[in-house]
Design a protein that fits this description.
mainly alpha; single chain; elongated; 4 helices
Length: about 90
């Protein structure tokens, strides 16, 4: 399950970067809002799945509450999932 969590972390992190660096500029500078709908929906699904796996690992691996909170906070920050994997896993 930890390996799957790491894979989801990479997918979630990449989707956030795509949303912020590709889809949002396309929406506002090229008037192409469909990019945000598609990438935003994907990112939302990855985000929810990542946090669900984090909650499961919290119980299974006996993470502290602090580790779980850091996981949630870093999932909301660009490059955060990559930092969490490197520092806490």
């Amino acid at each position: 399950m930890l390996h799957f969590f790491k894979v989801m972390g990479k997918l979630e992190g990449i989707s956030l970067l795509l949303l912020l660096c590709v889809a949002m500029p396309l929406k506002y500078f090229v008037d192409f809002p469909l990019a945000v709908k598609i990438v935003g929906s994907l990112h939302g699904a990855f985000f929810v799945f990542y946090l669900t796996l984090g909650a499961l690992l919290f119980k299974r691996m006996k993470w502290t509450v602090d580790t779980l909170v850091i996981c949630v906070i870093l999932a909301s920050v660009p490059f955060g999932t990559f930092i969490f994997e490197r520092k806490y896993l």
